[in-house]
Amino acid sequence: MILHIADPVAHSESDHELIAAVDEFLRAHKSFPISTVANTIFPEELYVPGDRQLLYDRYERQFPRIKKAVPDWGRYFHRMISWKKGRDGSTENQLETMIENLSKFGPARDDVINRYHMYELSLFHPVRDANKFRGRQCLSFIEIKPELDGEKVRLHMTALYRSHFYVAKTLGNLIGLGRLLNFIAREAGHEPGTLTIHSTFAELDTGITDSKRGSKAWNKSGTKELIADCEKIMSGARADTAA
User: Fold this and answer.
1) Residues 6+ apart with CB under 8 A from 223
2) What is the model's pLDDT at position 186?
3) CA-to-CA distance for 28 and 83, rounded, in angstroms?
4) DSSP states along 33-45
5) I want to staple 190 with a disulfide (CB 3.0 to 4.6 A). Which of 93, 153, 198, 226 is the partner?
6) Mean model confidence pLDDT for the chain
7) In the chain, how many domains are there?
């Protein structure tokens, strides 16, 4: 499934209403709320605009607690900023490298060779993930493509998911990716563009029953009711716009 969003940063009044409805549904089943899912990709509460290092430092201090609370889940941002390069424990901040390169080689500058094809973040680790049946990453890869739009540069993001739960995770993932795109654009001195999600396996999931967390699965009828509620919200928004 391919999902394209023209403006992943702006949220309308109906968007907020829809987000609240989905979040209420997830919380009622003790599933991860939208804010938690979004924070796995970009922990916005830790970010002070213009101070990327503070964001990285704050996250690294919190990471042991995140790892202890939910083993093998919620570590996308950590892989972006602390990718393990080898057995010696050395790491690479992929996200910082991307921002620096977008600042140096982006198409807004005339005094350098423009680079349109070198801005990538890897989330799948071929050593740590290849043989996992559970707990492996669902988001595998992120790419940024800069586009010169008049005097501005817009950054377009594409994200590849090997597996995607469209009820439990997608909305939170979209918000997290939009926030990540906005962060990269702001820090590189550009503008956020579009967001394209390619889910090579997409599922209208029915949740997971986990006695340790207290979560309860919902059935297919629960999924259909949630979709109907969301469609009602969007239909009302379209009617208001037409009026």
Assistant:
1) 167, 204, 205, 206
2) 96
3) 35
4) PHHHHHHHH--GG
5) 153
6) 90
7) 1
- Percent of the chain, pLDDT > 90? 69
Can you read off the two tokens belonging to residue 145?
A: 């493509």
- For 91-110, the pLDDT digits (tens) are 899 999 999 999 887 776 66
What tokens does 17 get?
């209403």
Q: For residue 171, what is the domain's CATH number?
A: 3.30.572.10
Is residue 183, in this structure, part of any structural domain at all? yes
Q: Is the residue at 2 inside a domain?
A: no
Q: Which residues pair with 4 in a beta bridge?
A: 196
Contact 35, 172 (CB under 8 A): yes
CA distance 27 to 76: 22
Of residues 83 and 122, which shows the higher confidence score?
122
First to last CA, the chain: 33
pLDDT in tens, 9-19: 999 999 999 99
Query: Where do we find the tokens 């992929």?
Result: 94
Q: Does residue 216 sit within a domain?
A: no
Residue 165 forms part of a structural domain: yes
Q: Which domain holds residue 108?
A: 34-201
Q: At 67, which amino acid appears?
A: K
CA angle 99, 103, 104 (to 5 degrees): 120
